[in-house]
Design goal:
Layout: H1 8-11, H2 15-27, H3 34-47, H4 57-70, H5 75-81, H6 89-96, H7 110-115, H8 134-144, H9 150-158, H10 160-173, H11 181-185, E1 193-199, E2 202-211, E3 220-227, E4 230-237, E5 258-260, E6 265-270, E7 277-278, E8 283-289, E9 292-297, E10 302-307, E11 314-315, E12 320-324
Antiparallel strand pairs: 1-2, 2-3, 3-4, 5-12, 6-8, 6-11, 7-10, 8-9, 10-12
GO cellular component, one term: cytoplasm
Domain Lipoyl-binding: 250-325
GO molecular function: pyruvate carboxylase activity
């Protein structure tokens, strides 16, 4: 992305979304397929009725595009299999009318196939919305995170799950918001020098020197670095060293008794337990990846024989969620 690209006239990806979409694609394991994601974006847009793409409607198109690439689905297959697919939550809510009625109306019969008996929102979505009590929200947040600011409250109001995850990381590691994106997500490499401005006029110069090969009994390694030219070291727990290799079972392709993860993500909510009776299309679990939520639905009616996931577990595509009999 070092120059302009004329294919924007075809896919109509908004400039502000372009880099975010690429970052999401890499995070979901679709980095090498970004060209396919861009082509799918155009198809997804047309499937949804060639909508005006601006936050949050552009996110709906992007989520559907990545869902299509992840599951190797064409626009025609989306239309034909809409009743049986577990679509991203943003797509379902868009079709319900959660962000309003698009110019030209909703795409039919896609909308009816996806929603089935789900409720529809008539009129302006916010009209029936109760006012948000920011004072109560701040009070609730302070029970777990005593140092929340007004900015934090705004973040929690818009992205509750993402904000809570960030607050937990901040409590554990400190003011990580001052780190650049690459350092925050990947970490520095040996010999790399980074600058961290923690307040106006106060910048820390950090150079990573080495990591000890030997590990302590507590599972920690000593990390050596320079801080403003001074040699320092700190013991950091090696999270990978204490983990046992666990291979999560995959759902067998074509086996309608097994429900697999439609794309990589973290388990937010499990809505069923062993022995529960479910109807076709009933929510089984909610997954989250890069602010994109996915409601996994039962492909058929039956009884939950086993549940293979736990809350907070990270899944890869096609990892087994549950078995229905």
């Amino acid at each position: 992305m070092k120059s302009g690209n004329a294919d924007v006239y075809m896919n109509e990806i908004p400039g502000g979304q372009y880099t975010n979409l690429q970052f999401q694609a890499f995070s979901l394991g679709l980095g090498s397929q970004f060209e396919e994601v861009k082509k799918a974006y155009r198809e997804a847009n047309l499937l949804l009725g060639d909508i005006i793409k601006v936050t949050p409607s552009s996110k709906v198109v992007g989520d559907l595009a990545q869902f299509m690439v992840q599951n190797k689905l064409t626009a025609k297959e989306i239309e034909e299999r809409a009743e049986d697919l577990s679509f991203p939550k943003s797509v379902v809510e868009f079709l319900q009318g959660a962000i309003g009625i698009p110019y030209g109306g909703f795409p039919e019969p896609l909308r009816s196939k996806v929603l089935k008996d789900m409720p529809r929102i008539e009129g302006r979505p916010g009209q029936e919305l109760l006012p948000l009590d920011f004072d109560k929200l701040k009070k609730d947040l302070m029970e777990s995170f005593p140092d929340v600011s007004d900015h934090d409250v705004m973040s929690a109001a818009m992205y509750p799950q993402v904000a809570n995850d960030f607050f937990r990381i901040r409590d554990k590691y400190g003011p990580v918001k001052h780190l650049d994106t690459k350092t925050f997500l990947v970490g520095p490499t040996i010999g790399e020098r980074i600058e961290v401005t923690i307040e106006r006029g106060k910048t820390l110069d950090i150079k990573i020197l080495a990591v000890s090969e030997e590990m302590t009994a507590a599972g920690e390694r000593e990390v050596f670095f320079e801080l403003n030219g001074q040699l320092r070291s700190v013991f950091i727990r090696d999270e990978n060293a204490s983990k046992e290799m666990k291979i999560h079972p995959k759902a067998v392709k074509g086996n309608k008794d097994q429900v697999g993860a439609p794309m990589p993500g973290t388990v937010l909510t499990i809505k069923v337990k062993e022995g529960d009776k479910v109807d076709k299309g009933q929510p089984i679990a909610v997954l989250s990846a890069m602010k994109m939520e996915m409601i996994v639905q039962a492909p058929r009616a039956g009884t939950i024989k086993s549940v293979s996931i736990t809350n907070g577990q990270k899944l890869e595509g096609d990892d087994l969620i549950c078995t229905i009999e």
